[in-house]
Design brief:
alpha+beta, about 500 residues, nine-stranded antiparallel beta sheet, globular, Alpha-Beta Plaits
């Protein structure tokens, strides 16, 4: 914690120097002494009073990103003050990322002294908009963040087209590691990195409201993201946490076992797996399956002598229903890989020959564990060494004890045969945890091949305004309160007109 606050203080001091160098002549022409200019925070307070801006702006200094925004606002107001009719200078200011203020400060002559108080006063009619933007930014960065589900790896729990809200405070707010980035952009914008990677803070997390529980759905940064090295700029993934620190997981015939116990039965209706289906004489009614049984992933493999072959993602309950509904089904078989099959894309497959349906047993490291490094656990050490800040194994460390510094988690998608998860890339360190999905505020069923074709969008009304844990709907309450708000707001406006 101390390291994080020291880094934040150094960063704010850096911004202070930038502000002083970019506005020193402005302060002089305003008649403000240099010693006042050099005092951090106080110099901003003086400038806010001078240009008639709200004093509460000063609190924006204490959050790294909003402190940058505050400087931009002050600098832009100074340009407005000096060149009210020259809007092109504001455009130049933005195109230069604010550096234009240095040119004005050192090389442009101004006549501030001759301006009267009325000319000096800057309009404050954009304060409400600014406040809304700041509140949105702080909420997005520190409390709750919106996401959209782009893939089917978590069906049936989260569907493609679900717009979810993720709480960042449930598992403890992770303070931003990269303080300079474009607001509301994660790591890319138009193919260009949206953050400055040369300044970063140490990892620090506030106390949690609750710990991660087994089977929680969790949003986290992808540990093996090779395109983005900074922790909080790595790609976001959402999976179900099936393995906690200290657990041993194992998959046999596609069935997950945790600490030698089969996973909870209540998940059976949420877990999808791949099934091979063969029909005789008549093909499957795909439209019926999609519209009436909520089945999306249906791949037609081919037809041979009036026999039709399909690969479909189904839950166990759906598989049983299909067998009863269609008399022409010759067989419906789970697409389970044989134990002898070695999948090179699976983690540790080179050592153990695992695949997606036969995996483990694998121990999940826990903070404080002491392991004597040998040929039996070498694969675990090599997997976590980068996250622990250690070097890969060498001959000198064999036989020595190593104390694990972090907790690790094992994440798997509910769409077990169509999910790129911990079976393929390994553990999720505790510092990569982002938060807990808590709410679906919008859900759109779109054409997965052409998602931007809005004419084919369908609203999933049964999922809009629902909680993720228990699917409790708040849509009717939202509509009711919206109606009450607009009704009384209209009445109030009518009264004012009279």
């Amino acid at each position: 914690m101390l390291q994080y606050f020291i880094s934040s203080g150094i960063f704010l001091l850096f911004l202070h120097v930038i502000h002083v160098l970019g506005t020193c002549n402005f302060y002089k022409k305003f008649g403000i002494s240099y010693w006042k200019l050099l005092i951090p925070i106080y110099n901003i307070f003086i400038l806010l009073k001078k240009i008639h801006k709200p004093v509460w702006y000063i609190f924006l200094l204490f959050i790294p990103l909003t402190s940058i925004i505050l400087l931009f606002i002050l600098w832009m107001d100074l340009i407005y003050f000096l060149y009210k009719t020259e809007r092109k200078k504001i455009i130049i200011f933005f195109l230069s990322a604010g550096l234009y203020i240095y040119y004005i400060n050192f090389f442009k002559k101004t006549d501030i002294e001759n301006k009267n108080d009325n000319e000096k006063k800057i309009e404050n009619n954009n304060t409400g908009i600014l406040l809304a933007v700041i509140l949105s930014l702080v909420t997005h960065a520190y409390i709750i963040q919106p996401f959209v589900i782009p893939t089917s790896s978590m069906e049936k729990s989260l569907l493609v087209g679900d717009f979810i809200l993720v709480s960042k405070i449930h598992y403890g707010l992770r303070m931003p590691v990269s303080p300079i980035y474009i607001p509301f952009c994660h790591n890319n914008i138009l193919g260009i990195k949206s953050y400055f990677s040369y300044i970063k803070f140490p990892y620090f997390r506030l106390p949690f409201i609750k710990t991660i529980q087994r089977n929680d759905i969790v949003v986290f940064n992808f540990p093996k993201d090779i395109n983005h090295k900074i922790l909080d700029r790595k790609d976001h993934y959402v999976k179900r946490c099936v393995g906690l620190p200290g657990d041993t997981i194992c998959i046999k015939k596609g069935i997950l076992f945790i600490n030698n116990h089969r996973e909870d039965k209540y998940l059976l209706n949420k877990i999808e797996k791949s099934y091979f289906v063969k029909t005789d004489n008549i093909p499957l009614n795909i439209e019926f399956l999609k519209e009436n049984m909520d089945i999306e992933d249906i791949d037609f493999i081919g037809e041979n002598k009036n026999e039709y072959y399909y690969q479909i993602m189904l839950t166990e309950e759906q598989a049983k229903k299909i067998e009863k509904l269609f008399d022409n089904i010759v067989f419906l078989k789970k697409n389970t890989q044989p134990k002898e099959y070695k999948d090179d894309s699976i983690i540790f497959s080179n050592k153990f020959g695992w695949n997606r349906d036969f995996f483990g047993p694998l121990y999940i490291p826990k903070k404080g564990d002491t392991m004597k490094i040998n040929s039996e656990n070498l694969h675990i050490y090599n997997e976590i060494s980068n996250y622990e800040g250690e070097k890969k194994i060498n001959h000198n460390i064999l036989g020595k004890n190593y104390k694990i510094k972090k907790n690790y988690y094992f994440m798997i998608g509910d769409n077990r045969h169509n999910s790129f998860d911990s079976r393929y890339w390994g553990f999720v360190p505790e510092d990569h945890i982002v938060g807990k999905p808590v709410f679906i505020w919008m859900s759109i069923d779109w054409n997965r091949e052409h998602p931007m074709n809005i004419f084919h969008w369908k609203f999933r009304w049964n999922r809009i305004m629902t909680t993720i844990d228990n699917n409790k709907s708040y849509l009717s309450l939202f509509i009711l309160f919206s109606f009450i708000y607009f009704f009384f707001n209209k009445k109030n406006n009518d009264y004012l007109k009279k």
